[in-house]
Amino acid sequence: MKMMLRLHLDYGNPPLVIAHGGFSGIFPDSSSYAYNLALYVSVPNVVLWCDVQLTKDGVGICAADVKLDNATDIGSIFKNGSKTYLLNGVPTKGWFSVDFTSKELATVSLIQGVFSRSNKFDGNGVPKFSLFKMWLQRSSHQHDQFFTQHNLSMRSFVLSVSRSVIVNYISSPEVGFLKSITARFNPKTTKLVFRFLGPTEIEPSTNQTYGSLLKNLTFIKTFASGILIPKAYIWPVDATDYLLPHTSVVVDAHKVGLEVFASDFANDVPFSISYSYDPITEFLNYIDNGNFSVDGVLADFPITPSEAIGCFAHLGKNAKAQAKPLVISKNGASGDYPGCTDLSYAKAIDDLVDVLDCPVQLAKDGTPFCMSSINLIDSTTVAQSSFSNLTRSIPAIKSGSGIFTFSLTWNQIQSLQPSIANPYAGFRLFRNPKFKNAGKYLTLSEFLALSKNASSLTGVLISIENAAYLAEELGLSVTQAVKDALSKANYDNKRVYMVEENIRDALNSTVEDIKQFADSVTVSKTSVFPENMAFVTGVTDIVSKLQSFKLPVYVETFSNEFVSQAWDFFSDATVEINSYVTGVNVDGVITDFPKTAARYKRNSCLGFGNSTPAYMTAVQPGSLIPFITSEYLPLAEAPYRDLNNSDVVEPPLPPVTRAPTPRPAGSNSTAYRYSIIEHPTSKAASRN
After folding, report:
1. Is residue 304 part of a domain?
2. Rounded to an integer, what distance in angstroms lies between the CA atom of residue 316 and that of residue 322?
3. Could you tell me where the beta strands, DSSP code E, fall in 507-655?
4. CATH code, 581
5. Mind listing the pLDDT tens digit for each residue in 309-360?
C-alpha cells in the first residue's frame, strides 16, 4: 500500500473530492446554489454528485431520494399526493418522483432535509436533469427495480444521456443494473462504481447482504471498477463512538484492482469522539494514515476534504509554521480532557500550543492553583461530595449559588474528581466521556515547572479574577501569590487586557488609556465578525484599530464543535480560524482544541497571496445573507458599541484586609486579568 500512496503523489492523482448533492451541508441538496458553491470552494477537479430520480414522464432530476417529501415542499403543494409502495421489500409511504411529471415538479421547491442545518435557504426549484448536464460528473442510481415496476427504465435513461454528456462515474447499489450497462461504457471514460449500503441490508439482484458481498470483491470487479462504501466499513466505531482498529477493506479492494470511495462524511453530524469534533482530522485518517488511502470521499461539506487533501496531507508533525498567530490554550486542551489538569496541559503541549494558560484560584489555605473557575461546581464533582453542604451565594462573584475554592483547603480540593466542560451538551455534543473525570489539578508552581520543561512553549498565560473580593473579604492576595510563585523564574511579564463584551471599535483616547497598563488586548470572536442568527453580517475595525496603536490582538474562544461557529464557516473549525488569521490578521487565537489551531499554522497552503486556493481563502463577511430566502431574512440589529474611556477605568487593587473597600461605580475589573509570561528559553521566538 505504500506503493499506492506513492502513485497518488508521483502521478498527481490525489483522492477525489465528491460533493454530495453539491455543497449540501449549507444549501438544499442538489440545488443550483449547492452545486455552484461546491465548484467555488473545492479543489479544481471536484466531482459533483447527482442522485438521479425519474419522474412520471421519464425525466431525470437530481434529488436526494426517490421519496421527495423530506427534501422538498411537495407535501404542501400536492397535499393528496402521498402513496405507499414497496421499496426494497419494505412498505414505504411518501411523495414519490414517479407519481409526478417534470412539469408538476417545476412548481416544487427544494428545502434542507437535515433538520440540524439552517432552513434559511429553502425555496430553490428542483433542477431538471437535462438542465444540469454541465454538473454531471458523477451520477448515482438507486431503486432501479422500483422504477422498472413503474414502467420506467433507468438503464435506458442513462444510456440516452451518455450519448450527449460525458458522465465520469455511475454508481448504484444494484448489481443487476450495473451488469446491464457494463458493456456499454468505456471504463477509461466512465467508471462504474458499486455502492454498498448497510452490511445487513439485502441487495435485490443477488438477494445477498451487502456484508456478504463485501467478502467477494473479485465478483464485484467483474462489473465495476470501484466500490463506494460507508466510512464505518473502513474505520468502525464502538458502542460509545470511539474508533476501533481499521479494517482491511481498502487494502483488499486495491489488491483486486478496485478503487475505493468512502461516503457518509458530514461536518455537522456527530462523528467519532476520537476526532475531537475536527472534520479535517477525520479526513486525514482516510487519506494519510501511513497504511492506505481511499481514492475519494463523498462529503456534504466539500471544502473540508479539499483542505485536507490540498493543504494538510503528509505534513508531518515537524512541519514549519507558515502563519504568525500565537496559539493560546483555554484551560489547556480542555476540549479533550478536564480543563487545567495535568492531562489537558500535557495534551496541549503535545499538540504544539504556543502559550499555555493557567487561571489562578486560591484555596482556603492560600495555595494558588490552576482551575477554570472559582466555583468548584463548574469543574469538579464537588456537588456529589461530602462538601456539598458548603454551597453559598456570593453575588459579588457570580449569580446563583456555588461552592468556592476558598472554602476548601488544597488537600481537600485534591480529593475531588475533575469534571470535563461540556459547553454544547444541549446539542448532545459531549467531550471525551471516557476521560470526563480524569487527571489531577496542579498548583501554580507545578504548572510553572511543567511549562519550563516544555521547550516548544513560547510562554505561559496567567489569569487572575476576583482579586479585589479575595483581598477585601477574605484577606487573601492572589496577586501576591502569583508574584511569589514567579519570583524564582526568569520570566518577562506582558499584560493582556480582556474586553469582556462585544464591541465594534474603540476611541483613540481609549486605546491610549489601555496602552498605559496593557501590552495587548483580547476580544471576542463576534467583536471581529458580528453575527445575526448565526450568520456573519460584516467585519468591524477593532483589530486594525488596536494594531495601529501597536497592540497585538488575541481572539477567543475557538472550539471545534460545529454549533460554536457561524454558518459562514461551514461547520469547519479550520475555515473559521483561517478567516480570522488571513481575513483580519489577528495575532493570536485562544482555543480549547489547540491541536486544530497549531496544525492550521503549519498547513502548506499559506503564504501564496493571490494564488491561494479557494478552499484556503478567508470567507467574505456577509456573503451568505444574500442567498437567504426573503421571508427568512434576519431582522436588523443595532451595531455593537464602541469601547470608551469609562470602560477601561481600572482602580488599584485594595490592600489585603477583611474590611470592604469602596470601589468607583461602574468600574471594570478586567484590565489585569491576563499576563503572558515569556518562557525563559523562548523569549526570542515569542517576540518574532
Report:
1. no
2. 14
3. 520-524, 531-532, 535-536, 553-558, 588-591, 642-643
4. 3.20.20.190
5. 999 999 877 888 888 899 999 999 999 999 999 999 999 999 999 999 999 9
